[in-house]
Amino acid sequence: MIWILNFVATDIYGNRINVDSLMKEKHVILDFWATWCNHCDEELDKLNEAFGDREDVIIVAISQDTKRNINRVRQMAKAHGWNFPIIIDEGKKLSSRYGVFGLPTVMVFQRGGHLKKRIYGFNPRLIKLIKEALNLQ
Question: For residue 89, what are the CA distances in angstroms to 8, 85, 86?
Fold first, then answer.
C-alpha cells in the first residue's frame, strides 16, 4: 500500500518539514511519542543510534506534547542529541489521522511511500524489525 502522508509541518525549531518530499528521497521512520511516555525516549535513542547517520533513512518524531511544552521537548532533544525533525502534534491530529492510539508507535515507510511496518508499543526488537522491513544492513 502506498501512503501519501501529505503533510507539511513546522518542527520545534521553526523549520518546515515536507514529509512527502522526504519520502521521495529516503526511507522515513515516523515515531509517535511524548515526553511523558515511559519508553519513548529510550526508543528514540535506539532509532537515532541505528539510523541517525544514514543517508538513506530519516527519522521524524511526532510528539503528542502540546505546544506549551515545546521547551521541554527541545530540552529533551538537546539532552539526548536528537538532530532529526521533531513535530508537535497539537490536538493529536496526525496521530488520529494515522491510527495511532498508544505510545510509542512507529510507522516505517520505504522510499516512495510504501508502508512496510507498523510497530505498536515498546519492542526490544525494534531495530531488527525496521532493518528487515527496509532490507537494510
Answer: 12, 13, 10
**CA 32, CA 30: separation in Å to the nearest integer?**
6
C-beta neighbour count of 79 within 10 angstroms: 9
Q: What is the average per-residue pLDDT within 36-54?
A: 97
Cell of 3: 501512503
User: Is it true that domain 8-134 has CATH number 3.30.450.40?
Assistant: no
CA distance 96 to 117: 18
Consecutive H or E run containing 15: none
- Per-domain residue ranges of the chain: 8-134
- Residue-wise pLDDT tens digits, 79-107: 999 999 999 998 999 999 889 999 999 99
Q: State the DSSP H helix or E strand holding residue 108, giving kind and residue range, or none if neither.
A: strand 105-110
**Cβ contact 111:26 at 8 Å:** yes
Closest listed residue to residue 115, CA positions, set 101, 128, 99, 96: 99
